[in-house]
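Target protein
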Amino acid sequence: MALFSCLLMLLGNPARVLAQGSHEGPAITVHRTADCGCCTAWEDHLKASGFAVTDVVSDNLAELKTSHGITEELESCHTALVEGYVIEGHVPASAVQRLLKERPAINGLSAPGMPMGSPGMDEDGITPEPYVVVAIHGNGTTSVFERHGF
């Protein structure tokens, strides 16, 4: 019994360890404006999927977006950086996880605009709309990465 007690002390509470581990996945930095509630809702979605989120509030996201190839057609309310990729807008965590697993030769992903029903834009009572997550290529072109709600 004493050995078992010692092991528990060394390992800690297994439930606590699992809970802590749930946010020790890929580190993602989310850049947003101070008054954006849907951005923090998207961050919560990422955390629930295991991402370690760093929240950065900025008054001017234009330079960040431009420097990472985010054109006006691709824009949304927040821009995130994860393992060398840019993530623009309400991209589902599952798409980001797929991106990090497959590691395609692209700059990142975007869910242009603010599609209703996408993560962070999925409040009760709204009607979800179909939307596309696009891959952003180095030459500025895009292609469909995933379709949602079609």
Observations:
- Confidence is low (pLDDT under 50) at residues 1-22.
